[in-house]
Amino acid sequence: MIIETRAYARAGLLGNPSDGFFGKTISISVRNFGASISLYESPELHIEPEPQDGSTFRSVFHLRDSVSMLGYNGGIPLIKAGIKKFADYCEDNNIKLPNRNFTVRYRSSIPRQVGMSGSSAIVVALFRALMQFYKVEIPIEILPQLVMVSETEELGIAAGLQDRVIQCYEGCVYMDFDKTLIQNQGYGLYERIDPALLPKLYVAYNTNLSKVSGKVHSDVRARFDRGEQDVIDVLGQIAQKAKDAHIALKEGRPDDLHELMNQNFDLRCQIYNVPDSNKKLINEARSCGASAKFAGSGGTIIGIYKDDDMLNQLFVKLKKYNARVIKPFVI
């Protein structure tokens, strides 16, 4: 029997990037794109490579473009790291795994390095497959932490819990990463929000504006760890935008998110060095009357539009910047 599992892209609605700094966020899963895992029993444990895992290129320019879009390592290190952390979890929790091996293959339609969390989606889908294969249950509130440490501890990737939480819970989720909660129980407060409460959302992405998340966050992380008050204050204000939006959605005021999203991005620009190319995408979207902010670390923006006429304007204007506009499919 072949086990098939899937995890979806995500977009940070509000509060990012405070999630990596004990803040608060609201995120949505974007089911327009996903990563899938196929896993079946075999005599030996085998990981099937994808084209991006290879080392043969047509030219130096092909290698350059491949590395720019896909990174240096492809997906196999993620698979190895996820398998190791799954085994560690089982051993730490006295779960005896049967002597069974498997072959695993991954696929992904998530645009790479544009802030939609393609790497973590692969690991989430992998954990789901391993749980099915070995008949192991991992509490959903614990699973995002396991996915995150697969990347941070094993591969040295700078990552926060937000992406993994929304990809494990799916839909729309409010997250409070209070430091005391995280330290005491290993996870924050995660509350599902009915997607029907959300306003009309668009997502636009341009792979030419991609950023590697760890590099984007490294300077701010160092300043936060040094206790620079201006960084701490701004991240606190960004987190508050998520809390305000959570209250607004529960009280039936989705239109309040328009200004909150704009403020979220403007605050981000106070402590992050946002390239002009990304700012132009934000400003062009806002010129249509839509709100706009980063959905992740760069390359993808998210915002609210009023009606189909405004959505059509977004299609036309953002196309000038080679950005594709979609309506996120959220369940």
**Overall helicity:** 40-55%
Shape annotation: globular
Count the beta strands: 10
Domain module count:
2
CATH class of the largest domain: Alpha Beta
Structural class: alpha+beta
Low-pLDDT runs of 5+ residues are none
- Written as H for each helix and E for each strand, in order along the chain, the element string is EEEHHEHHHEHEEHHHHEEHE
The rounded Rg comes to: 20 Å
Average of pLDDT: 93
Discrete helix count: 11
CATH topology of the largest domain: Ribosomal Protein S5, domain 2
What about the largest sheet? 6 strands, mixed
**Oligomeric state, counting identical vs distinct chains:** single chain
Proportion of residues in extended strands: 15-25%
CATH architecture of the largest domain: 2-Layer Sandwich
Give an overview of the whole structure.
This protein has 331 residues and is an alpha+beta fold. The chain has two domains: 191 residues, 2-Layer Sandwich (Ribosomal Protein S5, domain 2); 129 residues, Alpha-Beta Plaits (2-Layer Sandwich), CATH 3.30.70. Helices cover 45% and strands 19% of the residues. The protein contains eleven helices and ten strands. The strands form two sheets. Strands 1, 2, 3, 4, 5 and 6 form a six-stranded mixed β-sheet that branches. Strands 8-9-7-10 form a four-stranded antiparallel β-sheet. Strand 8 and strand 9 form a beta hairpin. Helix 4 packs across helix 5 and helix 8 runs antiparallel to helix 9.
